[in-house]
Design goal:
- The protein has 823 residues and is an alpha/beta fold.
- Helix content is 29%, strand content 24%.
- It is built from 25 helices and 40 strands.
- Strands 17, 18, 19, 20, 21, 22, 23, 32, 35, 36, 37, 38, 39 and 40 form a 14-stranded mixed beta sheet that branches. Strands 9-10-8-11-12-13-14-15-16 form a 9-stranded mixed beta sheet. An 8-stranded parallel barrel has the order 24-25-26-27-28-29-30-31, surrounded by 4 helices.
- β33 and β34 form a beta hairpin.
- It binds pyridoxal-5'-phosphate (PLP).
Length: 823
């Protein structure tokens, strides 16, 4: 990846821009937009992009970390402090980025495959890689890097050692594909599919299709399923076409697909050039079948012999683009990224490792890195540099190749010839109290190591998508007025979603405060290495001592609490301790009422033990338009009370009143800070029933223990409440009311998803299990069952229980394991 390099002069020529030259000359080989993620600062060029946050504000940070090259659209103030830096002055930074990378792209004339579509892009790209890697030196997009920033990062990695590039492109707004096309300029175009929902930012399906097709404007050959272009009236791009599908008349016409005896694989039969050809793929779900056919078509279009293609398709491996965070044995945390390995994905995984603060020791288990033509000495040198930059304390190397370059790694290290050798010695390695990243090439089967190190999980799990959570945070940030700070609510085990796993991510994303309900929650975060200021909303006397020891800041809501806390501070000789004053503007829960203000002011003045860091109140009904007058009144009372406090205290403090729905609905009430709660977890009742900009964070999953064929009239469960109306099948699944799945979901109220189909519960919910009616659904014992996700939602469950999503999320019991992943 770090093979690409340019001199300062070359960059000036390409960008055709003004340069303010510093007194250090460097070779530029790494692109960066994020001053928190720098692995080789000396050779980095930093693009000050204007997105949600203005990259120009992070120039100082990046410079401090050693970055010496900056592309900017505004002249930096205090240029004199950046003596060593080069500034490339352009009109538009993202356009400059695109121009640089597009120019780079044009240096290579080997084929570039461009992949787009609503779903399946990443899988198709990874499978093409698996199918072609034995013949070509392939450069491909890391993970699902397909955006206006991801595509440049991917294309930048093209260099002369490669013989083929596979780049994926994703868009969400009109106009974006034109820019990606300019950078990728694919020779071979693949459209995986088109989702019929015209969600996204397009007027209608036609506009969405025509936008996606813009990628193939100049393609030599375009590979697609005509079914997806039915409602498209324009001209299909590409000089040649290769089509596939079930309808008939396609270049690759699928005539049959049937389940093989093993119960999982699919045998596909197709008509191609007047002959019947076959392929067997080791997957049975509809999406995998479609992606595999898309790959089949691509290899045939490239001129491969049908028999060779079939034999390769039968060996397709599952693809996982997720980094999973799991609880390990011996108090370890495991980051499992054991599906593929190259330098780019290693850098991404190490960055994630570096964000984890819960243990002081960070260990990397790394296999040989499959070469892509790069001289191994250089490859391992580059790997060792990224590893060093990300604070790895111990390396466990697996494979004969990495051992040869063992000297490059300046840290505690051990090597094993293969995975079995490591497993045989695992007890002697004393792996405990550390964060362990598993990063191995497919053939090393690191899933065996993962199995050995992970705690056995109960098969009902709540999956937490950390990337979705990050996206939701960014969404709410985009609604904030300039300079407004953000507190994220991680009370009640982060609304049921987890503790340090979430807090680490929030800390990395530089939120300003965390808020917890009780002192113990704050202590747990401190013990996991969280250094952000933490507000405790509901402190009690027993916890004051602990709070002071762990630097936690209390909410002070009455004179009694103020006096008690002050007394403890005096005993510890503390002065100026940060506290947060809670005002009651109408909730009538905790807080000072307006008539108590004089007494409060009296108690605050001359109290040097505390410092009022912030003053806040809570809205009763910010989500409800019918209560807007009451909300207005709360805001007015808040303004009056904070004005008196400001007057009396004579120093500034932070004012805040908005929770999630107020951020969305009341831009006028942001004051100096907002408190983001449930929206972070993907739920905001403002978006209920309409297309939501939020991403679903939590998915609750269980699985089938047993399946029964029953006859009409048979009854199911306690008190025979479930009655079979006709002959059918019932599955018992491993979730019950002790897990937080309420009895109110019984007897058909609750729905679950089995292999993509919605099915109802039948009979009463039991303590640890319940039954679902799967008549007519293709399902087997052991199959996964979804209790809620983005299709069966927490709103649906809440409605059945006559409650709100908050109670559903926080009610999932602690014995349901949380599993975290990052896409
Ligand atoms: C829980 C809570 C919030 C967050 O509310 P959401 O509706 O989840 O955004 C904000 N402020 C206080 C005081 C809270 O207790």
């Amino acid at each position: 990846m770090m093979h690409t390099s340019y001199s300062v002069e070359q960059i000036v020529n390409i960008l055709d821009c003004k340069l303010i030259k510093g007194n250090e000359s460097t070779i530029i080989s790494v692109l960066s937009f994020d001053s928190r993620k720098l692995s080789e600062p000396e050779s980095t060029i930093f693009f000050a992009l204007k997105g949600r946050r203005d990259g120009h504000n992070y120039i100082a940070d990046a410079y401090k970390s050693g970055v010496r090259n900056f592309v900017v659209s505004e002249f930096p103030t205090h240029i004199e402090i950046y003596k060593k830096a080069n500034f490339f002055i352009v009109n538009n930074v993202i356009e400059a980025l695109h121009k640089l990378v597009a120019t780079h792209r044009r240096k290579y004339d080997y084929p570039v495959i461009g992949v787009t579509g609503s779903n399946g892009k990443t899988i198709t790209k990874e499978w093409l890689y698996q199918l072609l890697a034995m013949d070509e030196n392939i450069i491909r997009s890391p993970k699902s890097y397909n955006s206006q920033i991801g595509v440049p990062l991917s294309v930048w990695n093209l260099d002369s050692r490669h013989t083929l590039a596979i780049i994926e492109a994703g868009i969400s707004l009109p106009g974006e594909m034109e820019r990606l096309e300019y950078i990728i300029r694919p020779d071979i175009g693949i459209l995986t599919n088109i989702g019929l929902a015209h969600s996204e930012g397009f007027k209608n399906l036609e506009e969405k299709i025509s936008e996606k097709l813009a990628l193939f404007k100049d393609a030599e050959i375009f590979i697609y399923n005509p079914k997806y272009l039915q409602s498209f009236t324009g001209e299909v791009p590409g000089r040649k076409h290769f089509t596939w599908g079930w309808n008939g008349g396609e270049t690759l016409h699928i005539v049959d697909s049937s389940l093989v005896d093993d119960g999982r694989s699919q045998q596909l039969t197709a008509l191609f050039k007047g002959k019947i050809i076959e392929a067997c793929i080791p997957f049975g779900d509809a999406a995998s079948i479609e992606n595999a056919i898309c790959c089949w078509a691509t290899l045939l279009a490239l001129g491969y012999d049908p028999q060779i293609v079939s034999s390769r398709l039968s060996r397709l491996q599952p693809v996982s683009m997720r980094l999973e965070l799991k609880d390990g044995l011996n108090n370890c945390t495991l980051i499992d990224d054991s599906y593929s390995l190259d330098l780019s994905s290693l850098a991404i995984a190490l960055n994630f490792l570096n964000q984890q603060n819960q243990h002081t020791t960070r260990t990397l288990v790394l296999s040989d890195i499959p070469g892509t033509g790069l001289d191994p000495a250089l490859l391992y040198k580059q790997a060792s540099e990224i590893i060093k930059a990300n604070g790895v304390d111990r390396l466990i190397g697996i494979g004969t190749e990495i051992q040869k370059y063992g000297d490059l790694f300046a840290m505690e290290k051990q090597f094993f010839n293969d995975t079995s050798a490591l497993l045989a010695a695992i007890d002697d390695l004393s792996i405990h109290d550390e964060t362990v990243l598993l990063k191995g090439a497919r053939i090393f089967e690191f899933e065996r190591i993962s199995k050995a190190l992970v705690k056995k999980v109960h098969e009902t799990v709540m999956e937490i998508n950390l990337s979705a959570l990050e996206a939701n945070l960014n969404y709410y940030r985009s609604l904030l007025n300039p300079g407004v700070k953000i507190t994220t609510m991680v009370k009640a085990f982060s609304y049921g979603s987890g503790s340090y796993e979430i807090a680490n991510l929030l800390q990395f994303n530089k939120v300003d405060y965390l808020a917890v309900a009780i002192a113990d929650e704050g202590v747990a975060l401190r013990q996991a290495g969280i250094t952000l200021p933490i507000m405790v909303l509901n402190p009690d006397v027993d916890g004051y001592q602990t709070m002071i020891e762990h630097d936690l800041q209390p909410e002070i809501y009455s004179i009694r609490v103020l006096n008690d806390f002050t007394a403890i501070l005096r005993r510890h000789n503390k002065t100026g301790y940060n506290i947060h004053l809670k005002l009651d503007t109408g909730m009538h829960r905790l807080g000072f009422m307006e008539e108590e203000l004089p007494a409060l002011l009296n108690a605050l003045i001359n109290n040097d033990a505390i410092k009022v860091t912030s003053v806040f109140s809570h809205l009763t009904s910010s989500e409800d338009p019918e209560s807007d007058l009451f909300t207005d009144q709360q805001i007015a009372i808040f303004e009056r009370m904070t004005a008196s406090l400001e007057n009396a205290l004579q120093y500034p403090f932070i004012k805040h009143i908005s929770n999630t729905s107020a951020i969305t609905r009341r831009r006028d009430a942001q004051f100096d800070m907002v408190r983001l709660g449930i929206g972070l977890y993907g739920v905001d009742s403002v978006y209920q029933g309409v297309e939501s900009p939020l991403k679903t964070v939590a998915t609750l999953k269980t699985c089938i223990s047993q399946i029964k064929d029953l006859s009409a009239g048979d009854t199911v469960g306690y008190n025979r409440r479930g009655v079979m109306k006709a002959d059918g099948r019932v599955a018992t699944v491993k979730i019950g009311y002790a897990d937080g799945y309420s009895r109110k979901q019984g007897n058909g109220a609750g729905k679950m998803l089995v292999n993509g189909q919605v099915v109802p519960t039948i009979g009463n919910i039991c303590m640890d299990m319940c039954m679902i009616d799967i008549s007519g659904v293709d399902a087997r014992e052991g199959d996964e069952v979804i209790v809620f996700n983005d299709r069966v939602t927490v709103y649906d469950l809440a409605r059945n229980q006559d409650t709100i999503p908050y109670e559903i999320l926080t009610g999932i019991s602690q014995r349901v394991k949380r599993v975290y992943f990052y896409e």
